[in-house]
Amino acid sequence: MEGTIGEIRLFAANFAPQYWSYCNGALMAISSNTALFSILGTTYGGDGRVTFGLPNLAGRAAVGVGQGPGLSYYDLGEMTGVNSTTLAISNLPPHTHTAGGNIVIPAFSEEGNSGSPASNVLAANGAMYTSQPSDSSTKATPLNIQVGVAGGSNPVNITQPSIGMNYIICMYGVFPSRN
What we know:
Elements (H helix, E strand, L loop, with lengths): L7 E4 L8 E3 L4 E3 L4 H7 L10 E3 L30 E2 L21 E5 L10 E3 L31 E2 L8 E5 L9
Parallel strand pairs: 6-7
Antiparallel strand pairs: 1-9, 2-9, 3-4, 5-8
Pfam families: Collar (PF07484)
Protein name: Tail fiber protein
Organism: Chryseobacterium turcicum
């Protein structure tokens, strides 16, 4: 299968054809791959004296170098991204939670005989429901309802629908001419 040195193709078979290699980040000897090294350099790894690296597209999607409108900038050989992420409160849009419920208080219509609510039930008092500020027997206590924390900090899968295929790179073939 003829190709241009450095060309990458998707290949549906379970082997790399002759003169091609998997794009799996392998380190190659410069001495036996000088043409490919002159194209790739150490962009994808290696020490540049003895070895250089092939691109690693195992489990990755290729993205064009540069920056499209409204998109992030990508350098040649830059590896970025994750398969999952854990969302934080700052990732969520502003929103509110409403809470509701019923409060049941046992009560009697007779006059009470204790000045303390401890171990007692609510009983009648002549000024019990007055809204007069001067009535010192009215005891208003705010009801605080706290909505508990929800979630378990489990990562969210953000992997796009995918199919496993092999990326292969041409190791020996036509040397590309520069314009």
